[in-house]
Structure formats: structure tokens, C-alpha cells
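sry for the spam today, last one i promise. C-alpha cells for design, 529 residues
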């Protein structure tokens, strides 16, 4: 990190961003060329100075050895003083390659929308002080025909995240045409996969994907400051950035999404990165490598406001889109799988409450296991270990997902996050976790039964519904409390806000089974959802 600090100066930090604001206000676009918006602010407005600075950063970049061709990059998009050297570590790998087209994807910072946004109709090139880069108009037209790329073209006006990458492209791949895409913050995972599949149809031997994103934005000014200002903050931010970048390099699409969403991490380009990772998962053969991870805090020597930057390179080849392997059915978990699920639940809680890299590390260890794709519901229960089972005060939280149609990994993560906010109890704190025992109930699909007589205590979990009210008990609740079927149903009815005997007539019942796995750190527990 000292190498990066020596390269940079911090005195112009405020002037850079003041210049950005002034230039954005004055931004305009001609009938055919998208003019530069942040030249003179994020990078030099002088052609000679700009080319010299880019070439200098590329020469300073470390060596890269791969038998395979580089086909995709993830690069930062801050001012060159802060992230240019990190971007150069990735762009350096394209020197000498025959790149005829670059799909350049980044997040929209200035407009919120759903889907992808292409440039205005009539725009044929993007301009920087180094000249104009022509668009691949045929490919842009093809994408424009899809509803998922109907985002507002005006999002490109003044947007910096794509523009700052273009001078690097002009130096390392001067003949390449451009397909510029901005992705809105309201884009959902189905839309991201749709975009990925459509972009995969454009991939050939001469096409490279460049994703523009910064990683963690930490500080009060970014409205995300979970870590205290301390001498170790810089190392903590680097550790988080490295863990997240490792997931990207591993092509771990689900892991990256869950790590960022569960932790609340402020990765501005999480949607563009997710598009690339869907492409990698479904249409790529090769490997990814993290080239560099840095922070603006190390450049400035001040972490009051710090942004993390990472560069990642994918080498290999694009192939035809292929859907994931057929989903497996969930069988009886073995001991190793039980421990894996418990570790997942605890990593989820630690990541959600502490905002750290625990979930990322879990995915790096277990993310490829097929059992995690099996459809299932799940409940996560936490107990005060020092209170005896069955006594008041034992339960700390129990929340879950009844729907057994989603992948097991998704269900456990959602249940864990929900358990941290069980509305019956005060908000959970990370420091509590060490003194709580954790239990995960993995649920089968629910099925309707004709009457309560078919319910088997200890085997069936029960959902009772009547008059618009409902409640659920997991299968182990009645056994742990010593209830027979009638007593259990009376308690269930009261939990639903009904009278104790409301279950006797007019109620509907659904049953399910559960595999229950629990920690044995400080004793056994009870499960009352």
C-alpha cells in the first residue's frame, strides 16, 4: 500500500470534486458525439498530459502472465490521482491484444432507474481529450430492441464512471469500438441475468467486457460508517475489499450478491458486477485474478472519507450461454453439511450486524456445493444459552422463510437476516452473538391437510390459518414444550391472535417437516418461532 501512497498527492482532493460539479453543470452532448464531462477534473484535460499520465501508470503496473486471453476487466472509476494506478493494473493486460470491441458497463450515479441505459439515439461516438471512440452502432441497435435496455439515455449526461475508463482504452486498444451501458440502482436480479444473457450473445474472440465500479465507500459523507475511526481502519477496509474482490475473481455471482446485500456494503457498481458474474457463470471458461486492492484513505493518509478500489482480470474464452446444472433435491444432510449450514447462518448474522467479510469467506469455502441449490425453506433460531430450555427468556429470535421454492442458501441467508430483526425483541447487536446458540430448521414444502387429526406431533410443523390470521410452529416446538396435539394447537391459535379453541372448527392446516441442525456451544435450546 505504501507504493500506492507514494504515487499520489492529496492536496487537490477538494479541488477535484469542485471541478467535477462545475463541469457536470456545463455538460452538453452534440448530435453525434457524447462530449467529455469530467476532463480536467477526474483526469487531465490536456491531450499530451493525459496520454503521458496513462502511459506512465501502465508502465508502472505489475507483470501479468497468463496462457489465456484476457476477456473481461473490473476496474475503479475515481479520479486518476486516487484509482488510476489500480485501474492500470487491469488495463495493462490488454496491451498488444486484438480488441475490436469493448462492452463498457457501469452504475448510474446521477439517475435512479431500472434496467440498462444506452446512449441517446444519434450518438455515434464518445469523446475524450485523446479523440473520439466510435460506438458499435449495430450492436447498440440490437440491444436497444430489448425492454431491459430501455433505461433513460439522459443518464449518460454528465456520468463519469464510463468516461474515466475510455482514455485507458484509447491507449491499450486504440482500434476498439464501444458499447456503453449504464445500469440503474433499481434493477432486480432477474433483469441482471436477462442483460447478461443478451450481452453474452455479443461475445466473440475480439470482444472484451469492462465493468466500472468502486468498492466500499466509508464515511459519514457516504452515509455508511459502521467501522470506528481507528489506526486499524485502513487495514479493515482493505480486508473487506479484498474478500469481496476475491468473490468477483472466483466468479461467485450468488456469493458476491449476498455479501454486498447482507453487509450493506456500498459497492456502487454491484449491479454491473453482477451482470458480468452472470456472464462468467453461464458463458465463460477460464479464471479470474485480483490485480490490486487500494483505498483513497491510503492515498490521503486520512480515512474520514475513504473509497476502496479493486481491479480484477478474467482470462479464458467466452462460450455459448448455458443454464446452471439441474437443481438437486434436498436429501438428508450429513454431519459436514450440517456444520456448513450452521456456519452459513452464523456468517450471515456476523456479516449483517458487523458489516464484515464473513459471508464472503464462507462462500469462498462452500459456495460450489450442489446441496446449496436444493429448494428449501428455512428458519434461524437463536437462544440464550444460559437459560434452561422451556423457561421464559430462553428465546432470543426465530424468523424464517416458509416458501420452499428458493435455493437453500438463499433461504438460510434471508432467515438469518430476518432473525436479527425479530419484531418481538430489541434489535440484535453483533456483540450478542458469542453468547447465543444457533439453530437452523430446513423445511420441506408445505402441504394442505384435511383436518387436525392427521397432524403428528414431533414430525409435522404446522401452519394454522383462520379469518385472515395465521401462525406457525416448527416440528420441534411441541416436543420441547411437552405438549400433546390439542395443547399445541391451542397455543398456535393464541399465537395467531385467535381464541384458544379456534382451531376446532373453520381453521385450515398446512404441515411440513424439518431437518433441525443446532450448535452445541453452550447447551441445547428450544425453538418457538
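last one done:
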Amino acid at each position: 500500500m505504501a507504493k500506492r501512497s507514494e504515487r499520489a498527492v492529496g492536496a487537490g482532493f477538494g479541488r477535484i470534486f469542485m471541478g467535477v460539479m462545475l463541469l457536470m453543470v456545463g455538460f452538453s452532448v452534440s448530435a453525434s458525439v457524447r462530449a467529455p464531462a469530467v476532463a480536467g477534473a477526474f483526469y487531465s484535460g490536456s491531450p499530451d498530459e493525459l496520454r503521458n499520465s496513462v502511459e506512465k501508470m501502465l508502465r508502472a503496473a505489475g507483470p501479468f502472465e497468463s496462457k489465456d486471453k484476457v476477456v473481461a476487466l473490473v476496474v475503479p472509476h475515481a479520479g486518476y490521482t486516487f484509482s488510476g494506478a489500480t485501474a492500470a493494473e487491469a488495463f495493462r493486460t490488454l496491451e498488444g491484444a486484438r480488441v475490436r470491441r469493448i462492452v463498457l458497463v457501469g452504475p448510474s450515479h446521477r439517475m435512479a432507474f431500472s434496467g440498462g441505459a444506452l446512449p441517446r439515439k444519434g450518438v455515434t461516438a464518445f469523446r475524450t481529450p485523446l479523440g473520439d471512440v466510435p460506438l458499435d452502432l449495430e450492436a447498440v441497435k440490437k440491444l436497444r430492441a430489448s425492454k431491459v435496455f430501455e433505461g433513460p439515455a439522459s443518464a449518460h449526461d454528465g456520468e463519469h464512471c464510463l468516461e474515466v475508463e475510455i482514455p485507458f482504452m484509447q491507449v491499450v486498444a486504440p482500434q476498439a469500438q464501444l458499447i456503453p451501458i449504464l445500469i440503474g440502482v433499481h434493477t432486480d436480479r432477474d433483469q441482471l441475468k436477462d442483460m447478461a444473457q443478451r450481452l453474452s450473445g455479443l461475445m466473440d474472440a475480439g470482444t472484451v467486457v469492462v465493468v466500472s465500479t468502486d468498492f466500499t465507500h466509508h464515511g459519514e459523507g457516504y452515509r455508511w460508517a459502521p467501522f470506528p475511526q481507528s489506526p486499524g481502519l485502513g487495514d479493515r477496509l482493505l480486508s473487506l475489499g479484498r474478500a469481496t474482490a476475491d468473490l468477483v475473481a472466483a466468479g461467485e455471482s450468488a456469493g458476491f450478491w449476498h455479501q454486498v446485500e447482507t453487509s450493506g456494503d456500498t459497492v456502487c457498481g454491484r449491479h454491473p458486477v453482477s451482470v458480468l458474474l452472470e456472464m462468467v457463470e453461464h458463458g465463460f471458461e477460464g479464471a479470474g485474478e485480483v490485480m490490486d486492492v487500494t483505498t483513497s484513505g491510503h492515498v490521503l493518509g486520512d480515512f474520514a472519507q475513504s473509497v476502496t478500489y479493486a481491479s480484477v482480470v478474467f482470462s479464458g474464452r467466452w462460450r455459448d450461454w448455458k443454464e446452471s446444472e439441474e437443481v438437486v433435491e434436498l436429501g438428508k444432510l450429513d454431519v459436514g453439511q450440517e456444520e456448513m449450514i450452521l456456519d452459513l447462518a452464523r456468517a450471515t448474522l456476523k456479516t449483517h450486524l458487523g458489516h464484515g467479510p464473513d459471508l464472503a469467506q464462507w462462500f469462498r469455502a462452500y459456495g460450489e456445493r450442489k446441496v446449496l441449490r436444493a429448494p428449501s425453506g428455512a428458519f434461524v433460531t437463536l437462544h440464550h444459552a444460559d437459560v434452561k430450555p422451556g423457561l421464559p427468556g430462553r428465546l432470543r429470535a426465530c424468523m424464517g422463510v416458509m416458501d420452499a421454492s428458493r435455493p437453500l442458501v438463499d433461504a438460510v441467508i434471508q432467515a438469518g437476516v430476518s432473525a436479527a430483526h425479530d419484531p418481538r425483541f430489541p434489535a440484535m447487536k453483533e456483540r450478542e452473538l458469542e453468547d447465543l446458540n444457533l439453530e437452523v430448521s430446513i423445511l420441506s414444502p408445505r402441504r394442505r391437510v384435511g383436518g387436525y387429526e392427521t397432524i403428528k406431533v414431533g414430525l409435522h410443523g404446522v401452519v394454522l390459518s383462520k379469518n385472515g390470521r395465521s401462525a406457525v410452529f416448527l416440528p420441534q416446538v411441541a416436543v420441547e414444550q411437552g405438549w400433546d396435539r390439542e395443547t399445541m394447537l391451542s397455543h398456535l391459535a393464541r399465537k395467531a391472535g385467535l381464541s384458544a379453541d379456534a382451531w376446532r372448527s373453520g381453521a385450515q392446516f398446512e404441515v411440513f417437516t424439518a431437518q433441525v441442525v443446532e450448535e452445541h456451544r453452550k447447551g441445547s435450546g428450544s425453538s418457538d418461532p
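The two ends are 48 Å apart (CA to CA). ok im logging off now
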